[in-house]
Every structure is written in structure tokens, then in C-alpha cells.
Design goal:
Rossmann fold, 2 domains, 7-stranded parallel beta sheet, 16% strand, EC 2.4.99.12, Glycos_transf_N_sf, membrane, Kdotransferase, cell membrane
Length: 418
């Protein structure tokens, strides 16, 4: 029954996206990106004679999780070509020109025919799925062809179907993986509880990425001029739900605190509303000038791709998403060591839980709660120094997941002498 429901669910999803495409831009991208996908794959790979490593990410967040491994793989095994696939437009459209992969495609929907055709064209020597990707037909086809398959940066929770009585169909999917590398020991223990032993706790590959980014962060002259020695809170990936908490806080703290605000989605209407509310005090990055930007209290980021480097100017950081669908990347600000604040929906994010437990990140539920927790650390040099040191020690302890996974993967490469 579970298999039938899975088949129906996958096909219903594909149909639903197609029906939504005329009305929903993201759905339209999903459909357009898969139109003629097999012809595209054939055209681009038909003359390839090098061995292929296939990396698959659902979306942009999973890509950032897998990126350190992809880049390290390319460096260690330059004779391999990397095929990178995405399921979601929010990953593919942003990273379709990513230089770290040789070929980048949308992943065709998980059907038996699609999996067979995809593998015939790509001919991977190994496959690496990042975090949550557990597709029935692709894993089955890879297993039949004896192609090593790995899951990296995986996270499991007790309420997932793999650990329920009715989950036998989904447990068989897990059994097709050659090895699963989890982010934490709890996930490994859950897998052991269902007699899955091909598992290692490797850690979070994003830690390697953020440490590298922080070590090589290029200065941003406009942001540096804006800061002008004043304490700054960098607000990253904010949603409207976050702004309901943040805007009253900003009004309250503005006399002594500046803000760099990078919304998750850049919408002119929302930026205009902030400019109107803080008339004469807020300016967009694209309209600011190094000579005068220090006179403003809010710098609105109206571009994409700068956020991870902006955190170098953060005395405090707020990470958005945890009043809505889910928390965004807290490791990026953590790499620079400031206190981090975010909303209540963070339980699915191991690194956020770790940072809260370590006393360096703070869950807030309202504007007054944010003010209270901010004031508990603001203006306390000893506490801020302690937070900085504790955060950096945590990251150093977590570092090395990329190398641990890559060293293990090397054993399974068909051409280990490469």
C-alpha cells in the first residue's frame, strides 16, 4: 500500500505543479526547467568519456550543505566530472551557473522510466544525495546497477516514517544506500534502532564552508563606511513575520544601534515600507554612497549573494525564518562569533539547538522578548567575549566533516588510483 501511495503521490505532485504553472512563477520554472530535460542531458554528456560523480540536492539549502564536499571532491579527484542536480527551482535557478560542477540539471521526477533513462545518460560511477533526499526509483535503479550511493549531512528524527511500524517501504529505500553520513549521533542511533548499520556520524559539512568563507571574507567598503565604529545588528534572511518582531525592536534600539537588513526576498514594496517607517534613516545599498552612508541607521540590502560576507560587520546577528517555515543559516553569522537571535521554530536544525544550548544563540518569541535578551548581552564586554570564544570553539570542534566523508568515499571510487 505504501508503494502505491508513493507512486500516486509523486505523480499527483507533478500534475499539481503543472496545473499551478500558469499562476505560480516557481511552478512555471519547475515545469519549464524539465521540458526536454533528457535531450539536454544527452546533448551535454554525449561526448563525455571521464568518470562521473553525481551529486543531488533538493534546493539551495541542501546545496550549501553539499558544496564543500563537491569542491573538495573536484580538487582531490580532478579526472572526474561532476553532475549536479536540483529538484527545486530555488536551488537550480540560483546555482545553474555554479563553476564547481561540470554539468547542472533539474532532476526528472522520480518514476521508474525517468530513473532508468537518467542513469543511462549520466552513467555515474557514484551518487551522493544531500540531507533529505530519499527517492524510491532512483535508489532502486542505482542499487540494481551496483552504483555506490551515499547520503551526506543526513538528519533523522524519531517521528519520521522510517521509524514507525508502517514504514517498511521507506526503510527499504534507506537500505539501498551504501553508507549514510549523519550530522549528529542521535540520527545514527535512530538508524541503529532499525538495524541500519552502514552509518557514520561525520558532522555538518557547512561548518567547513562557513569557516572558509569567514577566513577569506573580502571587505565591503560601503558596509564598513556605514558601520563607522558603531555597534551593528545584521539581520539576515528576514521574512514579514520576522519584521513584525524586528521593527518595534529597531525603533526602540535605534539611538544606539545600527542595522544592516537583508530580506529573504527582495521586494520593492516591503523595502519602501521600511523606508517610509524610518524616514530619513534607512537607505538601500544600491542607492547609498560611501561618503554619506554613515549618517543612516539602517542599510537595506537589495541584492543577492552578499549576506555571508556582511556578517563580518555584525556585533549582533538576527537570522530569519523561524517565525515561519523554518530557520535560515545560523552558521554563517556564527563563523564571526556574535550573539545570534532567531524565532521559535528551530527544533529541526541541529546547529541552532547546539548554539542555544551553548548559550551563544537566543530564541525570541516577541519584540519585548528580543529586547530583553538583547539587553542581557548588550554593553557587556565580558559576556560578548565569552560568546565569541564559545562559538568559535564549537565550530572548530565541528570542523572536518568534509574531509571525513571524502576520505571514506575514496574507498568506493571505481578508479581508486585516480
Amino acid at each position: 500500500m505504501s508503494k502505491i501511495l508513493y507512486e500516486v503521490g509523486v505523480r499527483a505532485y507533478g500534475l499539481g505543479v503543472r496545473l499551478a504553472a500558469p499562476f505560480v512563477p516557481k511552478a512555471a520554472q519547475w515545469v519549464k526547467g524539465r521540458k526536454g530535460i533528457f535531450e539536454e542531458i544527452h546533448q551535454k554528456l554525449q561526448h563525455n568519456t571521464a568518470p562521473v560523480a553525481w551529486f543531488h540536492c533538493a534546493s539551495l539549502g541542501e546545496f550549501e550543505q553539499g558544496r564543500p564536499l563537491i569542491e573538495a571532491f573536484k580538487q582531490r579527484f580532478p579526472d572526474y566530472k561532476v553532475v549536479l542536480t536540483f529538484f527545486s527551482p530555488s536551488g537550480y535557478e540560483v546555482r545553474k551557473n555554479y563553476a564547481g560542477a561540470d554539468f547542472i540539471f533539474y532532476l526528472p521526477l522520480d518514476t521508474a522510466d525517468n530513473a532508468h533513462q537518467f542513469l543511462n545518460l549520466v552513467k555515474p560511477a557514484l551518487a551522493v544525495f544531500v540531507k533529505y533526499e530519499f527517492w524510491h526509483h532512483y535508489t532502486r535503479a542505482l542499487r540494481k546497477r551496483h552504483i555506490p550511493l551515499f547520503s551526506v549531512a543526513a538528519i533523522f528524527r524519531p517521528n519520521q516514517i522510517y521509524f514507525q511500524k508502517k514504514g517498511s517501504f521507506y526503510r527499504r529505500i534507506l537500505e539501498r544506500f551504501t553508507h549514510i553520513y549523519t550530522q549528529n549521533t542521535e540520527s545514527a542511533q535512530l538508524l541503529a534502532s532499525i538495524n541500519f548499520t552502514k552509518v557514520s556520524t561525520a558532522g555538518d559539512t557547512r561548518v567547513d564552508r562557513v569557516l572558509q568563507t569567514a577566513a577569506n571574507a573580502a571587505p565591503i567598503p560601503l558596509a564598513e563606511a556605514f558601520k563607522d565604529m558603531a555597534p551593528v545588528m545584521v539581520i539576515g534572511s528576514s521574512w514579514p513575520e520576522d519584521l513584525q518582531v524586528l521593527l518595534p525592536f529597531m525603533q526602540e534600539q535605534m539611538p544606539g544601534l545600527k542595522f544592516i537588513l537583508a530580506p529573504h526576498e527582495i521586494k520593492d514594496k516591503e523595502l519602501s515600507e521600511i523606508e517610509e517607517q524610518f524616514k530619513g534613516k534607512a537607505i538601500r545599498f544600491s542607492q547609498a554612497d560611501v561618503a554619506t552612508v554613515a549618517s543612516y541607521r539602517i542599510l537595506l540590502i537589495d541584492n543577492i549573494g552578499m549576506l555571508s560576507s556582511l556578517y563580518q560587520y555584525a556585533d549582533y546577528a538576527y537570522v530569519g525564518g523561524a517565525f515561519g517555515k523554518g530557520l535560515h543559516n545560523t552558521l554563517e553569522p556564527a563563523a564571526f562569533g556574535p550573539p545570534i537571535f532567531f524565532g521559535p521554530k528551530y527544533a529541526k536544525f541541529q546547529e541552532a539547538k547546539d548554539l542555544v544550548d551553548a548559550g551563544v544563540a537566543f530564541c525570541v518569541k516577541s519584540a519585548p522578548d528580543l529586547s530583553k535578551k538583547f539587553l542581557a548581552v548588550h554593553g557587556n564586554p565580558a559576556e560578548l567575549q565569552k560568546i565569541n570564544a564559545t562559538t568559535k570553539a564549537y565550530l572548530q570542534k565541528q570542523a572536518g566533516a568534509t574531509d571525513r566523508i571524502l576520505t571514506s568515499l575514496e574507498y568506493w571510487l571505481p578508479s581508486r588510483q585516480v
